[in-house]
């Protein structure tokens, strides 16, 4: 992961903000604005307790950029540390499992979602634009799918497995 | 806030008719659950409206008589979603076994004695097989191993199998 300039903490947007339902545009990962956004995503993620990923849509921009950092999370198996991906897409996904997810942009609900536990993702790193392919599993795989969904304008609410799969939150963050 | 409950023999159009009647009296649907139970379609809907209760009842009476639906409308206090909620951890209770009277009462009796709050519960009967699934909130001061032991014992009495599974939420 190339070094980024210091980022600033941005306000996290909440549903039903339109931007969360807007598919992101492709970005030029070497564009200074995109590099600044990447830094902002990481900065915002770091100050948000329990936050393991953040997409551009969540700070109000419909772009294909997101950050992830599952290191230190108790459920993490494979882990690629703290990184940002641009224009990411799923190359292959297998071993579906169902889990309950929460999202900073949907603070009042959680939802039961089927996601692959084995995943290969392709994307570009900010600054250099280097094309990378990540192979991961478990919690990081789920997190990547959640963030890629955000960059495509999808929330976990769009993915829940049945009519009883959205739950009011029992305890607040 | 009004609680509107509707039940009737299932057919396409029930939801559209009931919600259409509510929309006509400026009723805003908030939380609701609607499900098919053995050929009976059941709806429980919380509706917020500025219209008088009598007007809502009148609008639904038409739907009820024409559509063969049993409808009930009653004012309820407009509590916030979290009000009255038990602070604790979410679990799912899975029960299955041979059908007999008292399964739900026995299992939920154990939960009630421990102050465990049922937030969602469904049961299904197919032939002899009875299945119950519930989402519950276990207060933080309840010993879950003890609760499991009590559920196992109670389940044994009514001849069913019970599992209490923690629900973990992954924050993204
Ligand atoms: Zn999210």
UniProtKB/TrEMBL annotation, chain A:
Keywords: Hydrolase, Iron, Metal-binding, Protein biosynthesis. Fe cation binds at residues 103, 146, 150. It catalyses: N-terminal N-formyl-L-methionyl-[peptide] + H2O = N-terminal L-methionyl-[peptide] + formate. SUPFAM superfamilies: Peptide deformylase. Pfam families: Pep_deformylase. The active site is at 147. Its EC number is 3.5.1.88. InterPro entries: Peptide_deformylase, Peptide_deformylase_sf. Removes the formyl group from the N-terminal Met of newly synthesized proteins. Requires at least a dipeptide for an efficient rate of reaction. N-terminal L-methionine is a prerequisite for activity but the enzyme has broad specificity at other positions. This is Peptide deformylase. It comes from Auraticoccus cholistanensis. The gene is def.
